[in-house]
Amino acid sequence: MSELVAPSNGGPKSLVTKLAEVMGEVERVAKHGRNDFHKYDYATEADIVAAVREHMAARHLMLVPDVRRMTL
User: Fold this and answer.
1) How many angstroms separate the CA atoms of 6 and 24, rounded?
2) Could you report how far apart the first and last alpha carbons of the chain are, in Å?
3) What residues does 36 pair with on adjacent strands?
C-alpha cells in the first residue's frame, strides 16, 4: 500500500486523509451478527468500532455514537 502523507505545505492532515489511512489499514471486519429471518450475517456496530478504534485514536480521531431514532 502506498503511504499517505501530509499536504505538501507541511500542514496537518485533513479529516479525509486521516479516514482514508484508517480505511487502508483495516482489512475486513468479521461478521458476528446474524439476521435469522432473512438468513444473512453482518458486521455489528461493536465489531466495526473494535476494528477501527485503535487506528482512529492513533490519528487523534474519535467516534461518537449518536442514536437519532430507535424502532422496535
Assistant:
1) 16
2) 43
3) none
